[in-house]
Amino acid sequence: MTPVELSPAGPQLSAIVAGAWRMAEWGWNAQQRLRWINECVEMGVTSFDHADIYGGYSVEALFGEALALAPGLRERLQLVSKCGIKLVSPLRPQHRLKHYDTSAAHIVASVDNSLRALHTDHLDLLLIHRPDALMDADEVAAAFTRLREAGKVRHFGVSNFRPSQFELLNSRIALATNQIELHPLHRAPLHDGTLDQCQRLRLRPMIWSPLAGGALLTGSDEVARRVQAVLQAIAQRHATSPATVAFAWLLRLPSRPLPLAGSRRIEAMREAVAALELHLDAQDWTEICQAASGHEVP
Questions:
Q1: Which 3 state secondary structure label does DSSP give 179?
Q2: pTM for the whole thing?
Q3: How many domains does the chain have?
Q4: Torsion of CA 66, 54, 246, 253, to 10 degrees
Q5: What CATH number is attached to the domain comprising 59?
Q6: What are the 10-residue block averages of pLDDT along the chain, 298 residues in total?
Q7: Is 116 part of a structural domain of the chain?
Q8: Choosing from 54, 166, 208, 249, which is the catalytic residue?
Q9: Less crowded by CB within 10 Å, the N or C end of the chain?
């Protein structure tokens, strides 16, 4: 798999990104985690998505523990992390309630914690995890600049930002991506200007929950069942799996998104990678949208 450029001045990531957010639930030892990382890398998935809060502030350390078993492997990887959400946790007793914090002090402290946990000296990409009504764009930009000058973070972006929120921070410092939720059961970014903005700025969005948390394959409500039937029919026509079709639906978009595949099953990762070779025509793509909306296009 050839690495792709996330934005004109941004990092190069693998076209499919491995999401590590559920790693704490897998119950694996460090050697098993390292095996999963290596198997991803062997199929070309070299970029790994994290956040400080994943697993109740535990996943980065679990990943870093595995990485420490293989000196030199870090050079083959691109590590992405996110910050800006504060959870109530025994590991953060000072947090009285879940809230957002995009202050410079928190951003810098969060990066330092992530670097220690991941056993690395830099992040390839840091994202602000959620829009924060108290975000001071100048303060965030100054923190990003400080982190870049210190060699701790190479590139910056955001996650779950609306176009106007993205535009504000991007006016202060160049952002590489917007990581958003997008799948046939959640199509708002197709129409709210998010993907139009990505095309205009020539940056590629990252997509979390591309399978709707599994609902695209196993959901039991009426809409999910309609979409599943169409995914299955298209998969049969292309001699592939419904999961591969779901990833190909995203990859068909002209903003050229990078989907996150977050499964412990290597076969599921292979299904995501297979979508890079599957081109859906406009009718296939629209048929999936029609199943989700329940009506034809206007």
A1: strand
A2: 0.97
A3: 1
A4: -100
A5: 3.20.20.100
A6: 93 98 97 98 98 98 98 96 97 95 98 98 98 98 98 98 98 98 98 98 98 96 98 98 98 98 96 98 98 96
A7: yes
A8: 54
A9: C
